[in-house]
């Protein structure tokens, strides 16, 4: 079998695409230059009282830009739809479009449903009023769906760890071949994005790498927020010595160069001493603490309900907590093995803890700043006069009113956590060496970057698009929440 | 003002002491010391041999004593060896304690220790590597700061315009591209021998002696791009805020040309916030430096950090952390003082 080309049967569409893209760039530059010389045409008032846009050279160029943009997008959509229909006869792009079919279906369904009911969905619905926010949301959801369906084994074409001696560093579109023996019946015929230096399929590794990120990044960020909120609110509300000490500690961690901290925390020797496990024992306590205080502050006037809720939360989360920190041969074997629900590999736990540890002080500072501002509002004074307790005021008066900036920061921070995870992988810290996560894959690929760029390029672009999506999403959310 | 600087200076020293102690503690944990003994002495030492090897070199003392010795406020250890000779922190190994050996030898006295990886004095290594990184950082700043400020001012002067949206999208893209991603993409496009344009070199090793446009452009632009987007967005926000002020509106209504309004009225006030942001970028740039120096094999400060950390070279690692912590803290101090100095509305009493 011949190696696949990128576009296969859709090759005739490439020339129009280049023409349209070139025209778009040229027209955009022209628009910018002309706008420095000519003022836009005045709108014309019609006799019936409405306005109509005036027409001048500038408006003419604007229209041309819009047409060029439209045709570029239409051509790209043609590639995608053609690829889904033609599969491998539309080349590598066709093959990838077909493999990602579940993602396209889920993405279109989510976007269509959300757009239809956007007026009833609060801030989430308003996101679809901003183009930037919608684009960001689509990018993020693309990777989330890819990760989920990838974990369900619907997308990856090969096992991400399976090696083939014949496929080492082969370029994208090379037909699959094994060094010894025949190719199995029903195996996917090509390595869509080529093979890496051990002959593993780059496309499958990229998809399974997404699952690593989608599992760790939002969860680690959520933990950092729990820690930051639980400490930041009382620091701002009570002030005094408590605030001074916590702020000093937060600044201490922030002054630490992140990479140095990772190198000190995420080494086998340190994991051996158990320091990360002790740190996780402290950090994982915060969600339980947070929920307990939250519910107690709300329902302490209804003891029956309160006690029920608290018992459920503490028992349920407590069990998960104990299974998390206790490991058969770890430093904290508190739970007998029969009751241990799951074990997290030491490396992953350490990575998780250090990412939370790096993020929490920044969240603390943000929460503290917001709470200091909100503390002076009238509704807080009203609650104090009513005789509400300090925790009720913090968690049910101040926190809900700080949610806008916190949600925006959450999106940005998930992106930042993704970058941090990549950095850890890039230095080969924490995660197992053959882990398919994007940072490790870039690290593997960078040694032969000048000769075989494709193994590093695929995860690099994946990471770029996910973080870009999160940034755009945050931007859209900020824009829409400011409009209120 | 003097009191403010003094107080900030005190906090800075305290922070530096705490942070170096943390590094000291983590590098002196038992498994790390065992690894050190086995790499320095013999890989097949028994546990008893490891213990005596460490004891003979003063590693078994109390952590605070060791930290004090390293700092130079506690007299260096002198230990009699099994063979009757003496080994001390301030002299190597001798038959008897030399008369001219100083009692204290730590960071305060200028004795930063000996690197076990490079087999050289730590102070000399750090000086050399810091010089190389300084060269890199100088060019990063020369590229990053002007382009970020121009991007931000152009985007912020007419908020919501098409130009603003275009430039803002560019800065979002650059902030979303960490160095290891942009480095890979730039090397592929501009330096790869397979598909690339071959304009530049994919490694910067030769730039250490002789930096040219060809071998130095890619590392510089890789660091600059990531920081640029952030500074540009801050500048844009600050510029947009200034452009809504009353005095700008007055100037425009008075008939001052728009160019004059931007350059003479708005610019100075709009640049206060970005100044602090640029200063606070240093800790992040340090991250970028480590990644880029590893990626492009440029043997500067960041590369040294990676070497020291991955080989558990305790004294070099401590030296590196002292320098990086001070860089971070001093830039914070400068940004605070600069902010007060630039903004006439803030007066520290």
Overall description:
The complex is a heterodimer of chains A (484) and B (349). Chain A has 484 residues and is mainly α. Chain A folds into two domains: 1-37 and 57-99; 155-162 and 200-484. Chain A has 19 helices and four strands. In chain A, strand 1 and strand 2 form a beta hairpin. In chain A, helix 7 packs parallel to helix 19 (454-483). The longest helix of chain A has 37 residues, at 202-238. With 349 residues, chain B is mainly α. Chain B has two domains: 2-94, no CATH class; 125-342, MetI-like fold. Chain B has helices at 2-27, 30-40, 47-56, 63-71, 122-157, 162-175, 179-190, 213-243, 246-254, 258-270, 272-280, 282-295, 301-310, 314-342, and strands at 78-80, 86-88, 93-94, 114-115, 120-121. In chain B, the strands form two sheets. Chain B has a three-stranded antiparallel sheet, with no helix packed on it. The longest helix of chain B has 36 residues, at 122-157. The N and C termini of chain B lie close together (7 Å). The relative contact order of chain B is 0.12. The model of chain B has no long low-confidence stretch (mean pLDDT 83). Classes of the chains: A mainly alpha (484), B mainly alpha (349). Chains A and B meet through helix 1, helix 8, helix 9, helix 10 and helix 17 of A and helix 1, helix 2, helix 6, helix 7 and helix 12 of B. Chain B: GO terms for molecular function: dipeptide transmembrane transporter activity.
Quick tags:
heterodimer; A: 484 residues; mainly alpha; two-stranded antiparallel ribbon; 19 helices; 4 strands; globular; B: 349 residues; MetI-like fold; 2 domains; three-stranded antiparallel sheet; two-stranded antiparallel sheet; elongated; ABC transporter permease (chain A); membrane (chain A)
